[in-house]
Amino acid sequence: MANNSSFYSRIAYSTGKYMALKNVFMVITGLFGIFIVRLLGPYEYGRYSLVWQLIGTIGPIVSLGWMTSLSKFIPEKTDPREKSLIFSQSASSVMLVWLVSGTLFMVLSIPLSKFIPVEIRNIKLMFVSFILITALFNISEGMFRGLGKFNEFTIVDGLRSNLGNALAIILIVLGLRTYNTIIFSNFVFSAVFIIGLAVYLKKHFHFTSLKIDPAIAKFTLTVFAGQILFLMMYTIDFVLLRILLKDPSQIGFYSTGIRIPNMLQTMLITPLSIPFLYYFSHNEGQPARDRIFELGTKYLGLAFALIALFIFSFSREIILVLFGSAYSSSIHVLRISALSLFLLGFTALFTPYFNSINRPSVMLIVSCITFASLFASNRLLIPGFKSLGPAISTIISLSIQTTVFMFFLPASKANFFKNFILTIFGISIAVCSGIFIHSFLALPVFIITVIAARLFTMKDIENLKKIIRKKED
């Protein structure tokens, strides 16, 4: 038990260090984002959001799922030549796929131009090039993760995005208040940094056969299929808003409303999968994996439920103070989308857990079901609820996703079901109190419910003390 506590402490310390560094950059990014939203206005910001979302979706798809595979298999290999082989095959396959698909897009975009959004048609070459850069960033990040260099890549990625946003703000202030100004400035710095990464990683790259180890190929293809659905889930709302309403302003309202929850997800939830996949896959971490998974899921669910209800209570003040009255239509979007943080926090460790036990097929099945529910609910709700429709659809689909995830857990994980149901019960009471009495009551009502249901006890406090205590020599 003493050894386990020591290992838990090491995970907590390294993860905390990684997240602290990443969040410094995220706070700066968030501040830049507020200026960009206010300076552009709903219409141009909506156009930018659509293009940026598509680049952020297609780029990782072109990376073919290699980021996760590199994160998993590089730590398992002890021979540097095997590490270099996997990285070389990932880079070569990504370049080949981009060359074929990019050429096809450029050729077909001429006769099929009426089917391509005007926002994309105006910047076709930069759009295609940015997709390649994004894909190469993904596999570079996977290699850094596999080598255990989480913090180093965080610095690179943070500088890249923030320098790009800083240049964009300068250009907007000078009068270039269009969506492609931001795309251009980020493209410039992304190109500079990907060249730097290529120079740094060139010692790991050599021309080799694309005959990939069958186990790695199977894992990568499964992750890739699931990744396509996962990424499409984060784009379908923007695409359907544009198609069904034909009003970029609605995208602007929606994008602004989900900006704070998305930023918190990127700052506090998404980074968790990176070190935890490393530790879950590492030989030393495997014996403690189940216990870490159980405790982590419970505490993350409760923590993000508190954050979600805080935002729910103060959504009006947040939108008006940060983004201005022009975005008042985003208030209810923020109120609803904030609740998704609990579901995202509760399931944060599911993906690294199932990947570490070589069950990526679970993510593929879950993604298929989640995407189907998200598409159907968006299609039904957007025409009537406009920018609020996708926020409601996200809550519905994430609830289904969490339920399906738990279905694949062993029967011995009954505590997951109990914790989830009790937390949902507490959130439901808190939200009802906030809607029908006063929004400020939501948070204290939830805390009282959690204590009454014994979801958090003195034993949990002792567990947390052991986890966060630094390892003593």
Task: Outline the secondary-structure elements.
Elements: H1 2-62, H2 66-76, H3 80-108, H4 118-121, H5 124-146, H6 150-173, H7 179-201, H8 214-233, H9 236-245, H10 248-257, H11 259-269, H12 273-281, H13 289-313, H14 315-322, H15 331-338, H16 340-346, H17 350-356, H18 360-385, H19 388-407, H20 414-436, H21 442-452, H22 458-468
In words, what does this structure look like?
- The protein is an all-alpha fold and about 475 residues long.
- The chain has one domain.
- It is built from 22 helices and no strands.
- The chain has helices at about 1-60, 65-75, 80-110, 120, 125-145, 150-175, 180-200, 215-235, 235-245, 250-255, 260-270, 275-280, 290-315, 315-320, 330-340, 340-345, 350-355, 360-385, 390-405, 415-435, 440-450, 460-470.
- α2 runs antiparallel to α3, α9 (about 235-245) runs antiparallel to α10 and α18 runs antiparallel to α19 (about 390-405).
- The two termini are about 15 Å apart.
- Structural class call reads mainly alpha
Average pLDDT: 84
Query: What is the gyration radius calculated from CA atoms?
Result: 22 Å
Beta strand %? under 5%
SSE ordering: HHHHHHHHHHHHHHHHHHHHHH
Number of strands: 0
In angstroms, what separates the terminal alpha carbons? 17 Å
Total individual domains: 1
* Uncertain stretches of 5 or more adjacent residues: none
Q: What characteristic shape results from the CA principal axes?
A: globular
Largest sheet: none
Number of helices: 22
Helix content: over 70%
Q: What is the compact description of this entry?
A:
This protein has 473 residues and is mostly helical. The longest helix has 61 residues, at 2-62. The model has no long low-confidence stretch (mean pLDDT 84).
